[in-house]
Amino acid sequence: MDQSHPEGNDATLAQSKAEDRFGDEDYPAYSMGAAAEMLGVTPAFLRALGVAKLIEPRRSGGGHRRYSRYQLRLAARARELVDQGTALDAACRIVILEDQLAEALRINSSRERPAEG
User: Fold this and answer.
1) What number of other Cβ atoms are within 10 A of residue 44's Cβ?
2) Phi, psi at residue 31, to the nearest 5°?
3) How far apart are alpha carbons 39 and 44 in whole angstroms?
4) Torsions phi, psi of 67, nearest 5?
């Protein structure tokens, strides 16, 4: 029996959307429990990062916090700093500044490339 799907049907569109999400760093794919487990922290730590304005998780339809891979990277860096003895608020400020610097460097790098043509 032929298991192939014709172009444009619902199953193909759903698979395409799912594949897009796998590569999307900002897609809120992780629940608070999964995020806490992956990072080796408590849910309270993740909530504290929200209070400190480092990460603001999206909410599911039911109101549950959902985290993206990008947010988990920021949280992991904050945890490293806290584990080294940095106060949580200071760690969050450091992570924000590091992230802003990385973005500025990326923008500058893209401007310095010679125009192709």
Assistant:
1) 9
2) -70, 165
3) 12
4) -115, 145
Tokens of 52: 């400190």
pTM to 2 decimal places? 0.74
Query: Residue 21's CB: how many other CB atoms inside 10 A?
Result: 12
What's the pLDDT tens digit per position in 45-82?
A: 999 999 999 999 999 889 999 999 999 999 999 999 99
- Mention every residue, 6+ apart, whose C-beta is less than 8 A from residue 72: 30, 35, 38, 39
- Collapsing DSSP to helix, strand or coil, 58 comes out as strand
Cα–Cα distances in angstroms (integers) from residue 5 to residues 9, 11, 14, in the given order:
7, 7, 12
Residues 72, 31: contact at Cβ < 8 Å? no
The two structure tokens encoding residue 79:
């945890």
pLDDT digits (tens, 9 = 90+) for 72-108: 999 999 999 999 999 999 999 999 999 999 999 999 9
